[in-house]
Amino acid sequence: MNSNSRLSNQRGFSVIEMTIAMTVMLVLTSAIVSLVNSSIQIASTTYELTDAQESLRIAQEYINRDLMSAGDGLRNMANIPVTKTFVQNYLATTPIVDPALPVTVTNLGILTTDNDVAVNKIVFGPNPAVATNPLVYVRSNPVRTDRQTILQIDSDFTPIGLLAPAIDPTGTTITIADADQTRFTAGEIYFLTSSVGGTFGTVTAVTNDAGANSSLTFAQGAANGDTLGLNVTGAGGRINTISAGGTLATSLQRMKIIHYYVNADGMLMRRVFGVKGAGFREGAIAEHVVSVQFAYSLAPDDNGNIVQPVTRLTTLDQQIAVRQVEVTVTVETPHVMQNGRPPNMSMTTSTSVRNMQFRQALQPKATL
After folding, report:
1. CB 113 within 8 A of CB 313
2. How confident is the model at residue 75 (pLDDT cuts 50, 70, 90)?
3. In the chain, what percentage of residues exceed pLDDT 90?
4. pLDDT at position 170 over 80
């Protein structure tokens, strides 16, 4: 009796019982895996959408902050002449034409626009004559995007007042105090203003003569250190014109030329000319950016009529008539999530350019 009882208690599961148990376990496991996979997908989607929203927020914050400060320190200056080569290489494909200026010169407004940049537009580095490797392009796929340039005085730099004899008649050499010599480095961009107007120049050499004064050289040509193509010396040069051949008092300042563009990798780049220690510096502001588009609301015309917003500033009058800028940023998620494409998200803001309202009826524009 006892032996048979022990044998009976050691019986295992039947094949049918095992089959049922495994089936139940497979059903439960499949449900759990499906639930976990769905949770992972939801978490991933939420993360990527949140990341895209963060890129939108950061891009809008940077651009609109700079737009609100556009023209700081420049309320009494309508236009600033610079070389057309510099503008075409670094800022805008089609500069605004001013019949009063030589064909090699254009006026740089507080805002300089470049609408729907052409396909395969190369973004130059410190020297446009030397190709970057790999080449950097403005993004044009799946849509073409805009570029924007904003001017504002660098308030961290204390201006230096230059008496009339401080600038030589050719506009190539500027004499400064020895105490100021350490503030400058070759390759930096500076801004000079006088009662005639303002202009930019690249310092190509800093010389300390071990006496009472030092000097800054603004030589012309890449071989002499002007790789950005800003300097023009001689009687037709802008420093010569601004200083009236060295006979006008002039102020030496540093101005930021802030340039936004989207590269082919979807990075929104903020490049700043007029910085300490270099011709320019740049950094990525946001990623996975599809496009940035700008629209400009202008002041009423002379008859008080409302002017329709424009997508590009094409005249000198439009440059100083801007009152509001509408910024539309479109971003995408890093990975494909639906319909075989990454979803897009857009945000549009409108910013008042507060300094523009002071400019339309102010001093005449600078001429050469």
Report:
1. yes
2. low
3. 54
4. yes
- Averaged pLDDT for residues 66-72: 88
d(CA 353, CA 110): 10
- How many CB atoms lie under 10 A from the CB of residue 69? 19
Cβ atoms of 312 and 115 within 8 Å: the answer is yes
Mean pLDDT on 137-163: 94
Report how far apart, in Å, the C-alpha atoms of 78 and of each of 63, 252, 253, 359 are: 22, 18, 17, 6
Q: Which of 346, 319, 330, 269 is nearest to 70 (CA)?
A: 319
Question: What predicted TM-score, i.e. pTM, was given to this entire model?
Answer: 0.85
Alpha helices (H) in the chain, listed in sequence order: 2-9, 15-68, 84-90, 238-242, 316-321
φ, ψ for residue 329 (rounded to 5)? -110, 130
**186 closest CA partner among 170, 173, 167, 205:** 205
Residues 6+ apart with CB under 8 A from 192: 162, 198, 199, 200, 201, 239, 242, 243, 250, 251, 252, 253
pLDDT at 347 over 90: yes
CB 259 within 8 Å of CB 142: no
Gap between the Cα atoms of 219 and 225, Å rounded: 7
pLDDT > 70: what percent of the chain? 86
Q: Does an H or E element contain 294, and which?
A: strand 289-298
Note whether 349 and 341 are within 8 A (CB).
Answer: no
The chain-wide mean pLDDT, for the chain, equals 86
Per-residue pLDDT, 300? 86
How far apart are the C-alpha atoms of 33 and 342, rounded to whole Å? 25
Look at residues 169, 332, 200, 349 and name the one whose alpha carbon lies nearest to residue 262.
332
The b/e string for 307-341 (b: 16+ C-beta within 10 A; e otherwise) is eeebebbeebebbbbbbbbebebbbbbeeebeeee
